[in-house]
Amino acid sequence: MPTRRLFLNGMASAAFIRTSGAATPVVVSSKLDLEGGLLGEMILLALGQAKIVAENRLRLGPTSILRAALLSGAIDLCPEYTGNAAFFFHEDGDPVWKNAAAGYARAAQRDYEENRLVWLAPAPADNSWVIAVPAALAEKQNLRTMEDFASFVRDGNRVKLAASAEFVESNAGLPAFEASYGFRLEASQLLVLSGGETSATIKAAADGISGVNAAMAYATDGALKALGLAALEDTRHAQPVYAPAPVIREETLASYPEIRGILKPVFAKLDLASLRDLNEKVAVEGAEPGAVAREFFRLQGLLR
Predict the structure, then answer these.
(1) Which of 162, 246, 290, 298 could make an S-S bridge to 201, C-beta 3.0–4.6 Å?
(2) Domain span holding position 248
(3) 1 occurs within a structural domain
(4) Above pLDDT 90, what percent of the chain?
(5) Would you say 204 and 113 are in contact if contact means Cβ atoms under 8 Å apart?
């Protein structure tokens, strides 16, 4: 899942610098996480079908490294999330990021004006933070939304949440949920795990480790269904929208303007359910991301 709020100031190191030229391929990259790699494979497949020569630099590093590489021109094209732009431009307190269309428009405007980076059409999916609970508990207690969860907490029911320190401490994480829905989890109701990988938090909730029955997760986590967890809907939009979108250097897009139209129908097919299912094939079933991307193209009529 996408690494957040781990950004570097300034330009990339000299190790990122590459030479330019008319015959230089489009360098496609992504973050280390599973979903980033999967989206990168889709970009590579789409470009390959269009006979655009591309270089595979997928799973380059966390957000900080990928962003620095893109700003320096070491890479040309990568998937990014609209919500991360709030942190790129130090606007994480602005409610604009909680609206999918408005947040995308702000990201596109700021990145083009300041960096000549172009945000192409986003996916309708939202990979924001969510709280997930065991499906059996959700069914028994009628927990479908964060409003339901807040009532459950206020009524004094037993709740223990597994989460990262960042989620617990960041204003954009648990405090945003608590403020929006009017509940409060005490320290004794939290299991703070080092590292903050959602794979660990959702496993804790699924297995009931240390009494955990709720977990920090990402909305598109592929293992949610396999582990029998239900993600609670953020009906009041406490979280920024993290819609995936391709981001490309203006110079590269000028050389290959057809990329805009090539990638638009691909990302348009990536709604929350489909992206979660695709992640499950890789994370749970162990499928190779490139093969998952190709099968998705085939099923969606995108394979040529």
Answers:
(1) 162
(2) 14-126+242-299
(3) no
(4) 87
(5) no
